[in-house]
């Protein structure tokens, strides 16, 4: 490919983020040329792969870390509502693509799976009860149920209650409208649609350099890994959706906005069972409280999964450590990120998070029996012979400057964009994939302020609630959720 060729958009990374942005651009600006570069042999092989994530359609229905308790004991639902609002945007977008045939059978990527929260101990039971009382008043959480009755919880999720100790305080909430999402299947289908529309997907191509040119374009240097052939292409706009490697590439681009940022990689693993008898007895995603000092992404959960038409159960995650920024990254990733501008924030994070370090060490040194005992706290009847270990994807948590503390560890996602809007990238992890559509709309607003108004009608055609919120409009919330549920074939 000649270095003189200029395309409108280059997307780096073949995950759900690039697939979503490509889908939006090919619909809003169909005359633009789009090229995608993925270093592996297929798309959706890192965090978008269904076995590298729990597949939870994150809507804050069951995740307690989206509604933490303040120092004075009050509960603010704002973050939970915000996450749910974002997921509703993604659902509307997917429903539109199902309607126009860009996505196939919705059952191939999204399925109804009740979302539950299960806690034990008087303190957590009291918290969950108060959380329920707050959320039951919110339109986006309509249908939430609460119980401390073992008979009721046994109907919802029998594996939680069999052989549970008598006299132990416990409680659960349940929302039938939860979902399980196969982001691997979704990503493949989105890329199939955009390549049919004219986008070019280059797999086995690793981007090595990003250089800003005097005319404002970016020269993207890459290597075809199959033939070890280098190449270059110019782009008017670049999006870096390369997971943990996004930091490395944005650093190579030398944009000032990336200064002070670093990432802390956390690996993980799950226990999985495909035993039909066990799988048939649990049709829910059940989240609980994270251990003291554990990061929010390590909240234990017992998840029903549907991947390629097969049902399985996952339990985890168990945290681990790898210096790689991607599951198939490089051992020197964690060292290669260090710059004069991010060294102080990273050291501050290490100093201020001893609990996280202790937690990681405890996970790394935990025996197989100790780890399995965590599953048995959820499922007392679990037997080791029914479960096997799978290695999950890498999560690169954001570390950045903080004026008061020097640096902070941030759990979530963050868009980094240049002042002129010619390049943007995404750092961070959960809720990630479930909120890909609103995150990519944010990229469009930041980077194309002169075009976003002209795209508004097109966006609203795909996402009817665009530009407004649903939770403060009960009727609109109900109508929107019903409409998307009908198209996607999922429960209300």
TrEMBL record:
Name of the protein described by the UniProt record: Probable malate:quinone oxidoreductase
GO function terms (MF aspect): (S)-2-hydroxyglutarate dehydrogenase activity; L-malate dehydrogenase (quinone) activity
Cofactor(s) listed: FAD
Keyword Membrane: no
E.C. code: 1.1.5.4
Reaction catalysis annotation: (S)-malate + a quinone = a quinol + oxaloacetate
Superkingdom per UniProt: Bacteria
UniProt key word Manganese: no
SUPFAM superfamilies registered for this protein in UniProt: FAD/NAD(P)-binding domain (SSF51905)
Organism: Mycetocola reblochoni
BP-aspect Gene Ontology terms: tricarboxylic acid cycle
Cross-referenced Pfam families: Mqo (PF06039)
Family: Belongs to the MQO family.
HAMAP family: MQO
UniProt pathway annotation: Carbohydrate metabolism; tricarboxylic acid cycle; oxaloacetate from (S)-malate (quinone route): step 1/1
Keywords in alphabetical order: FAD, Flavoprotein, Oxidoreductase, Tricarboxylic acid cycle
């Amino acid at each position: 490919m000649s270095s003189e060729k200029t395309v409108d958009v280059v997307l780096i990374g073949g995950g759900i983020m690039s697939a979503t942005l490509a889908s939006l651009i090919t619909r809003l600006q169909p005359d633009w040329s789009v090229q995608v570069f993925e270093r592996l042999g297929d798309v959706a092989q890192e965090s978008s792969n269904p076995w590298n994530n729990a597949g939870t359609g994150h809507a804050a229905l069951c995740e307690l870390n989206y509604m933490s308790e303040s120092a004075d004991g009050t509960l603010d639902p704002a973050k939970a509502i915000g996450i749910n609002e974002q997921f509703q945007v993604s659902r509307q977008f997917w429903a539109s693509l199902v309607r126009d045939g860009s996505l196939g059978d919705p059952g191939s990527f999204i399925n109804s799976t009740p979302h539950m929260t299960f806690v034990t101990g008087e303190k957590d039971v009291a918290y969950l009860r108060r959380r329920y009382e707050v959320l039951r008043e919110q339109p986006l959480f309509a249908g939430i149920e609460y119980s401390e009755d073992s008979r009721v919880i046994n109907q919802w999720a029998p594996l939680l209650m069999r052989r549970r100790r008598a006299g132990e305080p416990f409680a659960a909430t349940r929302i039938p409208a939860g979902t399980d999402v196969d982001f691997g299947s979704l990503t493949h289908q989105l890329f199939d649609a955009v390549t049919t529309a004219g986008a070019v997907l280059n797999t086995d191509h690793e981007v090595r350099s990003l250089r800003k040119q005097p005319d404002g374009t970016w020269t993207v240097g890459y290597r075809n890994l199959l033939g070890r052939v280098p190449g270059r292409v110019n782009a008017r706009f670049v999006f870096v959706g390369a997971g943990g490697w996004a930091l490395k590439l944005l650093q190579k681009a030398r944009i000032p906005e990336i200064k002070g940022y670093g990432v802390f990689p956390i690996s993980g693993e799950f226990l999985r069972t495909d035993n039909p008898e066990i799988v048939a007895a649990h049709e829910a995603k059940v989240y609980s409280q994270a251990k003291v000092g554990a990061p929010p992404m390590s909240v234990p959960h017992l998840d029903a999964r549907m991947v390629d038409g097969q049902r399985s159960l996952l339990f985890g995650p168990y945290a681990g450590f790898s210096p790689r920024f991607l599951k198939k990254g490089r051992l020197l990733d964690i060292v290669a990120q260090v710059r004069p501008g991010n060294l102080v924030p990273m050291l501050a994070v290490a100093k201020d998070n001893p609990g996280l370090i202790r937690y990681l060490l405890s996970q790394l040194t935990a025996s197989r029996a100790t780890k399995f005992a965590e599953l048995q706290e959820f499922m007392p009847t679990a037997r080791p012979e029914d479960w096997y270990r799978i290695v999950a994807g890498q999560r690169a948590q954001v570390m950045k400057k903080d004026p008061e503390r020097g640096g902070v560890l941030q759990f979530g996602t963050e868009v980094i964009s240049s002042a002129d809007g010619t390049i943007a990238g995404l750092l961070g992890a959960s809720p990630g994939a479930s909120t890909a559509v609103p995150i990519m709309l944010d990229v469009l607003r930041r980077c194309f302020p002169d075009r976003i108004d002209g795209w508004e009608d097109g966006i609203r055609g795909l996402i009817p609630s665009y530009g407004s919120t649903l939770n403060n409009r009960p009727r609109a919330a109900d109508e929107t959720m019903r409409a998307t549920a009908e198209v996607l074939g999922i429960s209300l």
